[in-house]
From TrEMBL:
It comes from Shewanella corallii. This is Lipoprotein.
Length: 161
C-alpha cells in the first residue's frame, strides 16, 4: 500500500513538472489600420477575405504596439464614385515592410469590384510570406496537441504544415 502511495506521489510530481503552458506561442495576430477615407465596401471586402483564410485580425486606429501590421487605403473615381481609382496595401512586421502592393488605374482603367484584386494580394502578400508562415508554424508546433488541430482552422490553411 505504501509503495502504491509513493508511486502515485512521484507520478503527480512528475506530471506537475511537465507543464507546457509557458511554452505555447500565440498564433500571429494582424492589426489592420485604415488610412484615409476608404469606402465601407472596400473595408468589408478586405476584412472578409482575411477572415475567410482564418487570419486573426484586429482593426486598430493607429500602429502603436502591433507586431504584425496591415495598412490600407483606396480612392474612388468621379463622377459617381463607383470605381476604385487606386489602392495600396502594406504588410509589415515590427516596422519592416514584408509586402506592398499598389493599384493605380493603369491607362485609366477603373475597378468596380476590388474583391479579386484584394484576394490575389492576400494570397501572395500574406499567405505566401515565409516570415508569416514561419510564425504560424512555430505557434502550432509549440502546442503539445498540435497534431489534433484541423489544418483548415489555421491561418492560410493551404500553405503550411
Amino acid at each position: 500500500m505504501d509503495r502504491l502511495l509513493i508511486s502515485m506521489l512521484i507520478c503527480l510530481v512528475l506530471v506537475g513538472c511537465q507543464s507546457t503552458s509557458d511554452k505555447v506561442l500565440p498564433l500571429p495576430q494582424i492589426c489592420v489600420v485604415k488610412q484615409g477615407d476608404v469606402r465601407p465596401d472596400f473595408t468589408d471586402s478586405l476584412m472578409g477575405e482575411l477572415k475567410s483564410r482564418q487570419i486573426i485580425v484586429t482593426p486598430v486606429s493607429e500602429e502603436v504596439g502591433c507586431e504584425w501590421l496591415l495598412t490600407y487605403g483606396a480612392s474612388w473615381a468621379w463622377p459617381h464614385s463607383a470605381y476604385m481609382q487606386s489602392a495600396q496595401l502594406t504588410f509589415s512586421r515590427r516596422h519592416l515592410t514584408l509586402s506592398q502592393q499598389a493599384y493605380p488605374s493603369a491607362g485609366g482603367a477603373l475597378f468596380a469590384q476590388p474583391g479579386d484584386w484584394i484576394s490575389a494580394w492576400i494570397e501572395s502578400g500574406i499567405c505566401e510570406n515565409p516570415e508569416y508562415l514561419s510564425a504560424i508554424e512555430k505557434a502550432v508546433i509549440s502546442r503539445p496537441w498540435f497534431d489534433l488541430l484541423p489544418r483548415e482552422s489555421l491561418p492560410c490553411p493551404a500553405h503550411h504544415l
